[in-house]
Write a sequence for this structure.
């Protein structure tokens, strides 16, 4: 219902919303087969770092439009639509560093490459952080072009995390953890733990009880997991049957909105959500169940993929980055605090050797994360 007490059903609410904001997929479909200029003069692409590279775009175009040999990346053809305007127009890309989590997601790099190749007449305003850090651009030519042609604006960098309002330094802590910068991680944790509690356990029930004791009133808690952490199923956490994507409307709506007594609700702490479902969203409190897909062996992270009846090592560097980014996303989904659940392994189960969990648990404890 609305604030004035007038009730509105969900279908009418959706129609009202869609009349104001157009989905990017509808925008794409409308102008892909048309040579007209868009009606829109300003477009905002959220999660722009997840735009597709040329290979994935060509595959999609072939399946969707029966067009073969398509040579543009998703940023390239989206800019092309807006480039049809004779007068002014504006594209706003909202991006996060290290947030690419799926095959074909090209990062902000692909937007820069498209501008370099085909749209040099555009003015490109960028955050200083785009070229001052190594989280965004990786190819030398795009870095050089951006330094030379990008108009740097420090105001375009959102330096304070709105997601984790209790701690401005959570992202830096997560970055230090994933980059194995132990001293930095230990230092930041000491600064934030009083306002943003992070704890660890090897007991799932203790994790649930901690969340129950922390949340107040209408605050929500939830269980999050990597989609490739397949063997957590032995611990009662089945990533394959959880909320796997935010396009699964019925599951995602119930997970985020159903009340505490609904078994489909996040707060019931039974149905997990993967990185694909929760990216760009957040809860007040989370339990992150750490799987055997990414584990610390005492010296470095090891990257694994579950195939058939066992684990295989990931050798491809891009796929390694996707997996690390998965945990970066999961570690930054809580506004107020989190518990990390690292289960015990099982010597009798070759898919859950204790080494896949013990090293990770010991690493987090060494960082100063308190056990409950």
């Amino acid at each position: 219902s609305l604030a004035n007490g007038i009730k509105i059903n969900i279908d009418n609410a959706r129609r009202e919303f869609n009349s104001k904001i157009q989905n990017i997929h509808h925008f794409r479909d409308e102008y892909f087969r048309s040579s007209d200029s868009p009606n829109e003069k300003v477009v905002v692409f959220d999660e722009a770092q997840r735009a597709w590279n040329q290979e994935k775009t060509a595959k999609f175009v072939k399946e969707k439009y029966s067009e073969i040999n398509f040579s543009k990346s998703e940023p390239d053809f989206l800019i092309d639509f807006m480039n049809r305007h004779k007068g002014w127009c504006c594209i706003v890309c909202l991006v996060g560093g290290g947030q690419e989590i799926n095959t074909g997601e090209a990062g902000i790099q692909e937007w820069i490459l498209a501008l370099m190749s085909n749209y040099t007449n555009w003015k490109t305003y960028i955050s200083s952080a785009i070229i001052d850090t190594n989280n965004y651009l990786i190819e030398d030519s795009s870095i050089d072009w951006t330094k030379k042609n990008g108009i740097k604006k420090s105001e375009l960098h959102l330096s304070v995390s709105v997601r984790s309002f209790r701690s401005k330094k959570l992202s830096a802590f997560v970055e230090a953890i994933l980059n194995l910068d132990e001293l930095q991680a230990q230092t930041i944790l000491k600064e934030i733990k009083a306002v943003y509690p992070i704890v660890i356990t090897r007991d799932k029930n203790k994790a649930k009880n901690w969340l129950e004791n922390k949340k107040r009133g209408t605050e929500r808690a939830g269980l999050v997991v990597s989609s490739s952490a397949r063997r957590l199923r032995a611990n009662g956490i089945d990533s394959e049957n959880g909320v796997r994507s935010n396009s699964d409307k019925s599951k995602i709506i119930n997970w985020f909105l159903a009340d505490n007594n609904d078994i489909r609700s996040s707060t019931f702490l039974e149905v997990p959500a993967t990185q694909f479902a929760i990216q760009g969203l957040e809860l007040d409190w989370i339990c992150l169940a750490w799987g055997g897909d990414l584990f610390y062996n005492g010296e470095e992270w090891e990257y694994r993929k579950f195939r058939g009846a066992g684990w295989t090592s990931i050798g491809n560097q891009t796929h390694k980055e996707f997996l690390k980014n998965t945990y970066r996303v999961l570690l930054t989904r809580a506004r107020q605090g989190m518990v990390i659940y690292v289960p015990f392994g099982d010597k009798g189960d070759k898919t859950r050797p204790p080494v896949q969990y013990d090293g990770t648990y010991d690493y987090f404890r060494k960082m100063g994360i308190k056990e409950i």
Remarks:
- The chain has 14 helices and twelve strands.
- Residues 202 and 343 are 5 Å apart (CA to CA).
- The chain has a mean pLDDT of 87.
- The longest strand covers residues 334-341.
